[in-house]
Write a structure and sequence with these properties.
The protein has three domains: 104 residues, 3-Layer(aba) Sandwich (Rossmann fold), CATH 3.40.50.2300; 137 residues, no CATH class; 148 residues, Heat Shock Protein 90. It has 15 helices and twelve strands. Helix 5 runs antiparallel to helix 10, helix 8 packs across helix 10 and helix 13 runs antiparallel to helix 15.
Length: 452
């Protein structure tokens, strides 16, 4: 018998020692790891430790029978995706149908034919692994789309840093040569005026429209024509960039014989100051994006729930989607103060990422994205609304089904919202959707208290 390359652990649930002995021998010879439970109750206790990839479940057992054991396993988000193959001497088709309706994937009739059992087990394990690969592929596709935008979000501040350094280099070379010369020529009054100009440039955050900027430069250029400057237009541009809109405070400088050199030196010093500020802002922006990406991709070593901020997770996702948002999406956030909740933070970030990404795509990258949080009793509620085309009523009830998608072939696996639903179920929460043309709301409700 050829061993499966998957090497999964299989849990045998049966109260008959002879059946257990035969199955353990068969499965171990076929390369599987094997765990055993002699009752339904014991199976529920052993599953967290055994972490089986598949369960062979006898139907007729004292106490909790196979059907009830299956019902409880399928009701638990932690175990509902484990494939269950029923085993029984019962040959009535009603029992087989009941087992399949309760969530079983297959049925083996006792006495079990060894080759048939191994073949069926391998098929269902292969299907489970294929589904997991598709889920991972969905996550990687989403991550790949994010990374494309993140690369732009990081390259933009890096470009700003590079340009600022270049500007600083040129200005430093100029001022190192000219500043000592200029300062030696200034009278005490002119020095006061010179440093006042530098101080104004340092404090000024110019926020003018192009039209306002042109008007100011024109006014300054007209005023400068009263003085013997050969480059009035250039000086007007430099003064406007330093935030000067009135020349009188700086008349002592304008009346100096080397006024053009003085103003140019002040302007070069302001470039150094502005460039250093631009570098600081760019570094903070890049740091923010990298931190958000780290939050998105990190994995919990213990795989245990921890207390975390829901709002911080949402903000991480908005940062990562910034490149998709900034050109046509208006984002409105309304965050009510929330307590931290016991959760799997990385998985909830996956939820917010999928919902935000779906909303952006539904709006074709043009529209309004509104996110609100609130606390309702012992739960936190996150509402994500968009102004997209809406979800047709005939498919609304199916959007959380695995592999269901309304996208064109090759544009999605149809697992995004299924993943969302599974994660929310794992947190013992719920998700609701309201939709009409031009307005769709996904509402997620999560418990604050520890996960049971």
């Amino acid at each position: 018998m050829q061993a499966t390359p998957l090497k999964d652990s299989i849990l045998i649930v049966d109260d008959a020692p002879n059946n257990i002995r035969v199955l353990v021998e068969l499965l171990t010879q076929s390369g599987f790891q094997v765990a055993v439970a002699c009752s339904g109750e014991q199976a529920l206790e052993r599953i967290p430790e055994a972490a089986p990839g598949l369960i062979l479940l006898d139907i007729l057992m004292p106490g909790m029978d196979g059907f009830e054991t299956c019902r409880r396993l399928k009701a638990n988000p932690e175990t509902r995706d484990i494939p269950i193959i029923f085993m029984s001497a019962l040959t009535d088709s009603v029992d087989k149908v009941k087992g399949l309706e309760m969530g079983g994937v297959d049925y083996l009739t006792k006495p079990i034919i060894h080759a048939e059992a191994i073949a069926r087990i391998n098929v269902h394990l292969s299907l489970r692994h294929a589904q997991r690969r598709l889920i991972q592929e969905e996550k990687m596709v989403a991550l790949g789309q994010l990374i494309a935008g993140i690369a732009h979000e990081i390259n933009t501040p890096l470009g700003a840093i590079q340009a600022s350094i270049s500007n600083m280099t040129g200005s430093l070379e100029y001022t190192l040569k000219q500043l000592p010369v200029v300062l030696q020529t200034l009278s005490p009054i002119q020095k006061d005026s010179f440093f006042a100009l530098l101080n104004q440039a340092r404090q000024t955050q110019v926020r003018r429209s192009s039209r306002e900027d042109r008007q100011l430069r024109h006014i300054l250029q007209q005023q400068l024509t009263e003085y013997p400057f050969s480059h009035a237009a250039r000086l007007a541009d430099s003064l406007s960039r330093m935030g000067v809109d009135f020349l009188d405070p700086f008349l002592p400088l304008l009346k100096a014989d080397n006024a053009a050199a003085i103003l140019e030196t002040a302007y070069q010093l302001s470039i150094i100051q502005n460039s250093s500020q631009n570098i600081q802002v760019a570094v903070e922006r890049a740091t923010h994006v990298v931190y958000a990406l780290k939050n998105y991709v990190r994995q919990s070593a213990s795989k245990m729930p921890v207390y975390a901020s829901t709002i911080e997770g949402i903000e991480t996702v908005l940062t990562l989607h910034q490149n998709q948002i900034k050109h046509g999406i208006e984002v409105e956030t309304s965050y009510a103060p929330l307590p931290q909740i016991l959760c799997y933070p990385e998985e909830l970030i996956q939820v917010w990422s999928n919902l935000v990404s779906n909303a952006i795509q539904a709006m074709n990258y043009q529209g309004k994205l509104a996110i609100a949080t609130s606390q309702q009793g012992s739960h936190v509620v996150v509402q994500i609304a968009d102004t997209g085309q809406g979800i047709p009523p005939m498919v609304k009830d199916r959007i959380f089904e695995p592999f269901f998608t309304t996208k064109a072939m090759g544009e999605g696996t149809g697992l995004g919202l299924s993943i969302v639903k599974n994660i929310i179920d794992k947190h013992h929460g719920k998700i609701e959707v309201e939709s009409q043309p031009g307005h769709t709301i996904f509402r997620v409700c999560l418990p604050i208290h520890p996960i049971s």
